[in-house]
Design brief:
- This protein has about 150 residues and is an alpha/beta fold.
- It has one domain: 3-Layer(aba) Sandwich (Rossmann fold).
- Helix content is about 40%, strand content about 15%.
- It contains 5 helices and 5 strands, in the order E-H-H-E-H-E-H-E-E-H.
- A 5-stranded parallel β-sheet has the order 2-1-3-4-5, with helices on both faces.
- Helix 2 packs parallel to helix 5 and helix 3 runs parallel beside helix 4.
- The radius of gyration is 14 Å and the shape is globular.
- The two termini are about 15 Å apart.
Amino acid sequence: MAKPIFVLNGPNLNLLGKRQPDVYGTATLEDVRKRTESRAQQHGYRIEFRQSNHEGQLVDWIQEAKEAASAIIINAAGYTHTSVALLDALQAAELPVIEVHLSNIFRRDPFRQHSYISLGAHGVICGLGAKGYELAVEALAEIVKSQNA
């Protein structure tokens, strides 16, 4: 079986379903995990699904992914707009990366419309709620397949 896809979630995503459901929806992070795992299984992948409120922990997981993962899905949440450290780690990992946001960041505060980590991502999915994670799995499965062809 292929190496897993690491799905890394940043600060406050542990509050999904409770925090601003008008912006982030009513799905919990556990709901997102289940949907993502189901889609990954359809493509022959396992998921390592993780969440941390700590930037350094996310950096450590990205570094771990370099050897242990096929690809990365990342929702860096608030760190998207502030973290050069996450960008550096993603670029050093040299893996396919899809950046995901539950909300449409382009319909929100202007500061949320800039992403440092996009420079390290193959693509960005935003505004589609939990479905965005499933679409990220689809995209990464194709990217990894084409790289291994």
